[in-house]
Amino acid sequence: MWAWILRGSGVKMLKKYVFAGAAHSGKTTMLNEMAKLGFQTVPEAARQIIEEQIAKGGTLLPWINRRGFELLYLERMLEAESRFSEGTVFFDRALPDSLAYHKIYDACPECIEHVKNSHYDAVFILEMIPGYNMDDVRQFDIEHEKRMQKAIEEAYSETGNRIIKVPAMSIEKRVELVLANIEVNK
Fold this sequence. Notes:
The protein contains eight helices and five strands. It is α/β, with parallel strands linked by helices.
């Protein structure tokens, strides 16, 4: 009811959704599908930072300088979230991922203050897809990624976000599940 009243009064509405999960869970694929459907999307900042740092021989990499990496990730995510004031937007990871990394590495305690108040309309925790392989960006083994999956789910839950688990299934079925669990503001 309130959404109807607010829309009718000219107040702009913003709906924020997150695709979260460990590496190789299909977050980027889901984000691309949402973009094809016309939604606003924000790509994964962590992967962008890693690719940039590798390209220029930098050291702000999670396996070299975890704290520096986390601070840059936080800066990028805060900037990305501030760009939106209306509509429906999907994020490939979001601020509570910092809390998940903190749980495992204790690398950036000052990042946690920014995470406590981060709220999303729903967080879709994507189950890992079979066939995980390490590469230049994915430097951690499967056991690490399983621990990370658990920490990510805990982090989003602890920040009071509504969690919707998405099993490993076809992209079409995943998109159907997401669309059935969102409220669209365009």
